[in-house]
């Protein structure tokens, strides 16, 4: 039997690229999917250069036929699809009175609809092959608590939690588990940095004080690191977590406790 395959949707950069490499180092064959096909290919090339096995795929996770085609290709080329991690996400930050419908729709499409489409395809294949697999969504603490100036992001991430619970119920009879990881702020990420000007405005502080502000809000007094996410992901992907499903697991340094 070939190795287990992990599909990382949104694996072309940042957290997704880190998790792709982490899973390769932990013995998975990796399918790196991203809207940016060049990034997906270069992450896969790095994994292959280090002795792993990976293939990069350009795919828009919000496009139904593209998702169906890409998952079929991965099934044919790598096989044994055991884990699907939905990392793709987008954040647009504005006060509700200035929030464009197009930005709201983009958040819902990428953060929620894309997760639905990829989870559905993964589930279809796992059921057809009798695989007791794992579906994991990268969510956010903003999927549990509203977030000022983040109506599109927060509401779509809340939706992801409901989707996680519902799919978990659908798939429990097949032994497939579905969980969401609710991250604290990845203070070193491009996504967080892109939000700094808007956060400075909402907090009424200079931009250079935004990162220290968010750090101090966390009981552990630091931001969430990619390695924190990888460690928890490893457990929820493992056989040891086979009795955990429908959960929204906080990785927030104590900032969220419910
Ligand atoms: N950055 C943070 O502070 C933070 C905090 C909590 C949760 N998160 C979540 O972690 C995840 C990763 O965040 P990040 O900071 O690495 O984001 P990022 O924007 O740096 O990377 C997201 C990746 O997803 C890809 N992507 C976007 N739309 C896509 C689509 N339609 N189809 C396929 N791929 C698509 C992008 O090309 C990119 O490679 C997201 O789900 C985000 O909501 C991030």
Summary keywords:
258 residues, alpha/beta, Rossmann fold, 7-stranded parallel β-sheet, 8 helices, 7 strands, globular, binds nicotinamide-adenine-dinucleotide
| CATH-level-4 superfamily name of the largest domain | NAD(P)-binding Rossmann-like Domain
Count of spatially separate domains: 2
Question: What distance separates the N and C termini?
Answer: 41 Å
Shape label: globular
Second CATH tier, the architecture of the largest domain = 3-Layer(aba) Sandwich
At the fold tier of CATH, the topology name of the largest domain is Rossmann fold
Kindly provide the radius of gyration, computed on alpha-carbon positions and rounded to a whole number of angstroms: 18 Å
Q: Counting H and I runs of at least 4 residues, what is the number of helices?
A: 8
Largest sheet: 7 strands, parallel
| Mean pLDDT level | 97
Please list the strands of the largest sheet in the order they lie side by side.
Answer: 3-2-1-4-5-6-7
SSE layout:
Elements: E1 5-9, H1 14-25, E2 29-34, H2 37-49, E3 54-58, H3 64-77, E4 81-86, H4 101-129, E5 134-140, H5 151-171, E6 177-183, H6 190-203, H7 210-217, H8 226-237, E7 248-251
Parallel strand pairs: 1-2, 1-4, 2-3, 4-5, 5-6, 6-7
Helix pairs in contact: 1-2, 1-8, 3-4, 4-5
Bound molecules: nicotinamide-adenine-dinucleotide (NAD).
